[in-house]
Amino acid sequence: MGKQIYLEKIRALFEKSPAVDFKSLERIIGKTKNSNYAKLLVHNLLKKGKIKKIGKGIYTKHDEISLAVFSFKPAYLGLQSALSHHRIWEQETIPVIITAKKVRRGVRSVMGRNILLRNINKKYFFGLEYMEEGNFYLPYSDLEKTFIDMVVFNQKIDEDALKKIKKKINKRKLLNYLKRYPMKIRERVTKLC
Q1: Residue 1 contacts by C-beta under 8 Å, 6 or more apart in sequence?
Q2: Fewest CB atoms within 10 A around its CB: which of 3, 64, 86, 177?
Q3: What tens digit of pLDDT does each residue of 7-31 get?
């Protein structure tokens, strides 16, 4: 198979998927004698600005920082990012990615911009939904899970945001989610409701 055919297949993959991992690119090229060809191809595409690195071995052709969420699977956009998406938080915020993966927490630079990474125990990884964001569907925590996470991560919720949350939240769903948490967290969340 010629190099041009590989390039066409790879372009098609980047058109179809918002985030592409290196293993997918290797599968397209196949396990040829020249296994460095995939690395060289990625290097050249990055150098030409055709693709951007959003995580270790994860690339995109889009200029959308929130796609970094796909680099930390299992993960979702949460806290202030989710509140903004639910139209509760008015302030500009960097993407906040909550992951069950063991990664270094804190601010990271992706595509020259910042993201904030937070860890969560796998047993608390639930309450997410894929929501449309521009041309993509991204995993966001639903409002009830976002509210719980705000309490768990000791994030300040101003009065205006709290009023909006109380108005929109599904209390039955919230109480159902809270059954999975220790009593201390349950009490803190229900006190705010």
Answers
A1: 30
A2: 3
A3: 888 889 998 999 999 988 888 887 5
User: Three-state DSSP class for 171?
Assistant: helix
> How far is it, in rounded angstroms, from Cα 19 to Cα 109?
17
Residue 131: in which H helix or E strand, if any? strand 128-133
The three-class DSSP label of residue 32 is coil
**Helical packing angle, 143-152 and 183-192, nearest 10°:** 110
Radius of gyration of the chain (CA): 20
Euclidean distance between CA atoms 163 and 54, whole angstroms: 36
What distances in angstroms separate CA 89 from CA 53, 65, 86, 92, one per listed residue?
A: 29, 19, 8, 8
